[in-house]
Amino acid sequence: MFYIAFKMLVGDRGKYLGIILGISFASLIMTQQPAIFSGLMTRTYSFITDLGLPDIWVMDPTVRYVDDGKTMPEKNLYRVASIDGVAWAKPLYKGNIQARLNTGTYQNCNLIGIDDTTLIGAPAQLIQGNIEGLWQADAVIVNEEGANDKLANPPVTSGGPKIPLRVGQEIELNDHRAVVVGIAKSTRTFQSLPVIFTTYSRAKQFVPPQRNLLSYVLVKAKPGQDIDQLVHRIEKQSGLKALPREKFKDSTIDYYFKYTGIPINFGVSVLLGFLVGAIIAGQTFYSFTYENLRYYGVLKAMGVADRTLLLMIVFQSLIVCFIGYGLGIAGTAIFAYFTKNSLLAFRFPWQLMVFSVFGVTVISALAALISIRKVLKLEPAIVFKS
């Protein structure tokens, strides 16, 4: 019976391909759009991800996400460092600054000031220069995307490619000379601004005078120290907000969920893709079953039970489900391959695979249910009359 079901399915190639394409489209939309959304959300906390050493981030109590850095008095650094269970506490400045380019134009950048002595907070991977170069006068490290694009030198010829910023070149930060001593590999940020690393004390020279400049205190717990207990102790004794690394990421994502329209926009795209795929697949599968009613009628007249006919239809829906899902996933993989080095954010966690399998299965089940109802109500005599 399954062989007959398969022959019935592929017998009309036009409808067979129509069902496959409908499910493939739905599968593609249900994976590609959420993957872009996931990539965007990942970029919102990419700075936290890149700083792997600290266990806890300590900040002003009103900070809601990582780019919402509100400065604090530097005495908070020493207050946190003295709390029992803290192995070390280091300062971090995170803010914006304007860089003056060779063309005379200005470019907004993220300025990161890290601990002068230990350089904790520096980028983990450099493709040019070395981290110790930050101990030189006026030294800065620029991230790769910024060096190749927004901070790059103008092209030699009109319309030609930009010339990437190199180690040894100078840029101007808020009327201060800065010398590039390294090009860093870092995760793109949500705003895709160039990221400039320097020491904490030099960052204070670059930015306009402010009363407070300490954005975060990076904390490492002593070995064996319970992180949650240490967080509670820091908040109680310092009056500041302390978040473990993963919770700070969650807090950042929560902010973008609540205060931006990004989740709604992508949610609408995914929902439309699901509905369009379901409608195309359901309608085509129903039409396919309807046009094959005479064969089901003949099978019924021959004594084939309703249960067997039901299994035949489920078998047909599973075939188109698996093929359509595979083609959709393949389309998403091809899309990811050709956009991997572009500005487009893309992240494909395993949860998306589960989500898309569930979605495609629902579409196939709906299409099968609509068709099954028609077959179960079929009277074989009507087929022979026609």
UniProtKB/TrEMBL annotation:
It is found in: Cell membrane. Residues 269-380 form the ABC3 transporter permease C-terminal domain. Residues 17-236 form the MacB-like periplasmic core domain. The chain crosses the membrane at residues 266-288, 309-338, 350-372. It is a multi-pass membrane protein. The keyword Cell membrane applies. It comes from the Bacteria. Keywords: Cell membrane, Membrane, Transmembrane, Transmembrane helix, Transport. This is ABC transporter permease. It comes from Candidatus Bealeia paramacronuclearis.
